[in-house]
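Researcher: Sequence of Nitrite reductase large subunit follows. Predict its structure.
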Amino acid sequence: MTVKKEKLVLVGNGMAGVNAVEHLLKLAPDKYEVTIFGSEPHPNYNRILLSYVLSGDSKVEDIVIHPYEWYTNNNITLYTNQTITGIDTLSQTVTSDKGLTVSYDKLILATGSNPFMIPMPGADKEGVMAYRTIRDCEIMIESAKKYKKAIVIGGGLLGLEAARGFLNLGMKVDVVHIGDTIMERQLDRTASKMLQAALEEQGINFLLEKQSVEIIGGKRVTGLKFKDGTIAEADLIVMAVGIRPNVALAKEASVECNPGIIVNDYLQTSVPNVYAVGECAMHRGIAYGLVAPLYEQGAVLAKHLAGVETGPYEGSILYTKLKVSGVDVFSGGQFVDAEGTKAIRIHDEFTGVYKKVVIKENKIIGAVLFGDTADGTRLMQMIREETDISGMGKTAILTDSSGGGGAASGVAEMKDDAIICGCNGVTKGTICSAIKDQGLTTVDEVKNCTTASRSCGGCKPLVSDLLAFTLGASYDKNAAKETICGCTTHTRDEVVTAIREKGLSHVREVMNVLEWKNEEGCSKCRPALNYYLGMISPETYKDDSTSRFVNERMHANIQKDGTYSVVPRIYGGVTNPTELKRIAEVAEQFNVPTVKFTGGQRLDLLGVKKEDLTAMWEALDMPSGYAYGKALRTVKTCVGETFCRFGTGDAMGVGIELEKRFERLNTPAKVKLAVSGCPRNCAESGIKDLGVVSVDGGWELYAGGNGGVKVRVGDLMSTVKTEEEIIEYTEAYLQYYRETGKYGERTSEWVHRLGIDRIREVVENEAERKQLCERMDLALSVTQDPWKQAIDSKKIQRDLYEVVELK
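Model: Prediction complete. Tokens:
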């Protein structure tokens, strides 16, 4: 007998509500039929990371927590870009602004909060806005292209993140704050002043103890006037002065609010079967605005809805562990000195580290950490458990995070429900179970599997410690940070970010600015830097041939006897008698000892002398096939519908078009494509970097295949209908690989690392796909055939191909 599922409706597609649903699905996957409404046109994303999108360090897809596939896989009906405007608590239905009415047995209100806009004269002018959503980020990014001066009102976390984003966008920025210290809710005075100094070094200007009274200008803002009569110029003003619970919907349905939606210890509202969670909820007189308490609420709510025994939600001890413009900060509990408290402080002005714990009656009640936040989780555990510290050495509380037994013993003492990643609410138990069950060995693998460290990254040291604790001696801690090579301590992402932010334009400049340990670099890092520079600035960067491997520098594959092989481009493996005659005649003219068909349907002329290369290329009058390069190699095809009685698609035509489109495209590693005209797959499309297969009504695109030493069958990425879409989707896929792949990393490894769901989400997002295609257009617009360049340049011939006889 099939048990009828109850209907659960979630109003709000944000972090708190969806996290509660995620918990519920794990506890009772078959209990509810779930429907979610979200006002924004996006799946659930991490609002904490909006500043990374604003600054250009991340793309929108990078901050998505639950992609569309997650909803589909869990049988959740999702309505995006649709706002619930009415609740009928008698008939138990909700109605949206699109006229859709859905019934519920249980209703969760997770309507979040609204940014507070100061009601001052001029607040309605063009160029005055809040900072709360992806759309706000997009408006700010567009504004930065036209305007040069911004003001952020509010010296809290959100305001500082907005300010840092404007700096990265090339704008000058003032932060206006009514108090005399910034982030006063999270930091004490000492830490606040240290943070201010660090941000001033980055370029942010602070106007403290300033009360804003009027926004001046005509139709658009031109400045901000203060109570003391002074004026600060601005083209754009962002208000980041606080939030208010979004309760309009609840009030209209006669749900008790004051000022947030009143909930009890099981998140129940005053109306039967209606619950509230997140920033809209008011519990015991407190509306929480930090993510960790909201996840704690969601865990209790999920257990209650699942019918699982659970203790009540009794409130949260507030704590924050995050990066503010690259600076690590932590605070938790009651960290301000008060009557009856004593404090332990460490302040190292040389290294910029400040630590403080506040103690009352031999118990830690609060802590502030600046510059080094590794002890934050341990201190929060002591605060929560009211640990008696009377028998401890007081300074050891701050100076020994491991209790003398190393980092692993520090995390060993934590309980399984200790929150390791506050941004995403991931516990120690979840991480340790994933490490054991999934065979995880690196921080990146833990991030991809559990989302821990996916957000601000502040918990990466703890994740690394948990790997060491769980895996023991088999854990390679150096794997926690994969540097480009031994010449540097920097990772691929750190190098790419530095090139973009600092405007670096030469290989040696990168090594100098980033303080390479080996000032000459090595054969691993120099080609990587050369690729990253060209990928970032295709129009302006001049390729450094000295930083390329010999095959790429010579544009021919060197053989073990010192001769070279020449592989001309044969588009899609399709040739003609004239081309074949010319290849044969050139092979005879230059006494080529061996001519071989390659696995990619081309002809390889083997045994060519170095001094004959340019003359041979000129005689062939064909473009380079890039058989030597980290670039598009071949596009293998079958005959398709043109000749095959089973064919359903024009494999040869599509293959030729793909090869002509992407020839000469530099990529992190070699790329091979294939097009099969029917599911029989004669072109072996399933084991190519991108394989295209004709099916009834369209084409399937397979990503990340590999037929080499580590055979990997490609993952189905997308299904498209037209040949034009094949080109468009391939452009987006290859450009995303170019921008996020590590140098030398094949797509098979890249797809495994990022996950096909994430790649699919990017490629199938129309706006993101368009942007990737535009950047691909730019990259391809500056490419030139290297064989033709060598033929036309006596200098290139003299430097690379002429044999100098010694006398």
